[in-house]
Amino acid sequence: MTDTELRAAVSGRVILPGDEGFDAAAQPWNRAAVQRVSAVVEPTTPEDAVALVHYARKAGRSLFLQPTGHGPSGDVDDAILVRTTLLGGVAIQGRTARVGAGVKWGEVQGQAAPLGLSGVCGSSPGVGVTGYTLGGGVGWFSRKYGMAADRVTALEVVDADGDQRRVTADSDPELFWALRGGSGDFALVTALEFELVAAPALYGGAIIWPAAQGPAVLDAFRTVTADAPDELTVWVSSVRPPGGAPGMTAMYATYLGNAEEGRELLRPFESLGGANADTRRALSPAEIGEVTNDPTDPTPSAARTELLTDLDVPALPQLFAAPPEPLLVVGVRHLGGALAAPVDAACGSLPEPYLVQLMGLTFTPELAAAVHTAKNKAGDALAAKATGRRPYTFLSPGDTAADAFDPDTLARLRSIKRARDPHGVFRAAFTVAE
User: Fold this and answer.
1) In this predicted model, what pLDDT tens digit does every residue of 400-420 receive, in sequence order?
2) Alpha-carbon distance 167 to 170, whole Å?
3) Can you say how many angstroms the Cα of residue 164 is from the centroid of all Cα atoms in its chain?
4) Whether 347 contacts 136, CB under 8 Å
5) Which H or E element spans position 90?
6) Residue 262's CB: how many other CB atoms inside 10 A?
7) What are phi and psi of 297, to 5 degrees?
8) Which residues contact 21 (CB under 8 A, 6 or more apart)?
9) Rounded CA gap, 434 and 426, in Å?
10) 19 within 8 A of 37, measured Cβ to Cβ
11) For 183, which DSSP code?
C-alpha cells in the first residue's frame, strides 16, 4: 500500500519525508536520538486510530507510538511514528480520571489539584501521561502510592486486529497486565482511566548550595532517607555546567503533609548552612513542576541509570563531589516504600532503594563520545551495589527491554506479544519482541 493510501486512510495529519516540517515532527525530545521513521501520523479520533491500524496491518508496516517524544531509543527505522497529541481531554469523576492519550501531566494536575487530588506524576508537567504510565511511571509520590501503572483501572485501545476495546482486569486480564508497565508494544492506547491519589497538603521545593557542599549534602541525604516516611521523597543532584561555569549541589523534595512536618524531616539539609537558595514552601499539586524546574526545551543528551541496593559504594561520594568531565549531572533518588511492594502488573516492583542517574549534553559528536565514555566509566564504578536493572522509563539508547524486566516478566510479555500482535503492528521504543 502506498503513502497516498495512508493519507486517505486517516483524517488526521500525515507527514511524509520531503514534506515541510517532517524532520521536526519526527524528532524526539532528546535530540541525540535519530528516528528514521517513514511517516508521522497524528490521529484526531479513536476512529482515526482504527483506520491507521487497519492500514498498517494490510500494508505490513509497524506503528511506533510516541505520544510526546520522551524516552526514545532510536531503534525505529521505517516505522510509522504515531503522535497522539490530538487525542486530548481530561474528565474527573470522584477519584477516577479519564484522559486522552495525548494529555500531559500538567493538565491532569491542574484539574485534580483543586479537588485535593493528584496523579502519580513525574517531575515535569510536559511529559505525556500515556507513555509515562505504559512504562510504569516512577514519580514524586511513588514511595507512597507505587507506580502510575498500578493506579490504572481501564485502557481504551485499538488492538492489532483494528478493533476498539476497553481493557480492564475483568475483560482481558493478560492484556491488562501487560499494558500496565510493559510498554506500548501491545495496542494503540487512545485513552486511560486511573485512580487519583489524595494530596490535601503538599510541601516541597529545592535547596541549592555551591558545589563544595556536595559531600555534606550526600551525607545528609543518607541520614534523611535512612528512615524517611513514605510520604517524603528526596532527590539530590550534583551539577557541573560545561564551559567552566560554577557548579552547584541541589536537594529536591516533596512531602505529602504540612509544611511544619516536612521542614522538620528535612532539618539535616537545612542545618548545613551556606545555601544560595531555598524554594521550599506549601505547594499545590498543580505546581509540582516547580520543584525541579526541569528543562522545557529539547536538547541532545546521553544518560545512564543504575539501581543500587544501598549507598555504601566507595565511588559514589567521589562521583557526586566532582562529576567526571564532561558529565553535567550525577543525581541520586530515594525509592523504596510502596515501590518495593509486589504488584500484579508488568511494571512489577522496585526493591532497590536508590537510583543513580549520570547525564551529559551531547551537542557535538566529539562531546557525545566523551559523555558516553564518562557515563559508562562512572556507571561501572557503581557495579558493586548496582543490580544492572533500570526502570523502563529510564532506559536510554543502547539499552533493551531486558534491562528493565526480569527474565520471567520478559518471557511473559513476549508470549503476550506473540499472541496479540503476531504480525508486529505495534513497536515500542524498547520493544519486548524477540
Assistant:
1) 999 999 999 999 999 999 999
2) 8
3) 26
4) yes
5) strand 90-93
6) 24
7) -95, 135
8) 15
9) 13
10) no
11) -
What is the bridge-based pairing of β-strands 197-198 and 117-118?
A: antiparallel
d(CA 54, CA 67): 20
Centre a 10 Å sphere on the Cβ of residue 210 and count the other Cβ atoms it contains.
13
Among 178, 180, 192, 30, CA closest to 101 = 192
Cα separation, 262 vs 230, whole angstroms: 12
Average pLDDT rounded to a whole number, residues 15-43: 92
The predicted-structure confidence for 230-244, as pLDDT tens digits, reads as follows 999 999 999 998 877
How many of the other CB atoms lie within 10 Å of CB of 154?
Answer: 18
What count of Cα atoms within 13 Å lies in the side-chain half-sphere of residue 405? 25
Strand duo 232-239 + 329-334: pairing: antiparallel
Q: Mean of the pLDDT values across residues 365-369?
A: 95
Cα gap 271→219, rounded to integer Å: 12
Collapsing DSSP to helix, strand or coil, 132 comes out as helix
Amino acid (1-letter code) at residue 285: P
Can you say whether the dihedral through the CA atoms of 302, 306, 311, 312 is positive or negative?
negative
> What is the rounded CA–CA span in Å between residue 394 and residue 380?
17
pLDDT tier at 284 (50, 70, 90 boundaries)?
very high
Residue 30: count of CB within 10 angstroms of its CB? 20
Taking the C-alpha atoms of residue 282 and residue 285, their distance in angstroms, rounded to an integer, is 10
What is the CA angle 195-200-201, rounded to 5? Answer: 130
How many residues comprise the chain? Answer: 434
CA–CA gap between residue 256 and residue 27 (Å, rounded): 36
Split at pLDDT 50, 70, 90, the class of 76 is confident
Place of cell 530515594: 334
Collapsing DSSP to helix, strand or coil, 148 comes out as: helix
State phi, psi for 300 to the nearest 5 degrees.
-85, 130
Whether 360 shows a pLDDT value over 70: the answer reads yes
**Which of the four pLDDT bands, split at 50, 70 and 90, describes residue 140?**
very high
- Would you list the DSSP string of 278-339? E--EE--GGGGGGTT----S-B-EEEEEEEES-S--THHHHHHHSPPTT--EEEEEE--GGG
Region 366-372: mean pLDDT is: 96
Question: Which residue reads 504488584 in cell numbers?
Answer: 343
Whether pLDDT at 1 is above 70: no
Instruction: Say how far apart CA 25 and CA 299 lie, in whole Å.
Output: 15
- Give per-residue pLDDT as tens, 236-277: 999 998 877 889 999 999 999 999 999 999 999 999 999 999
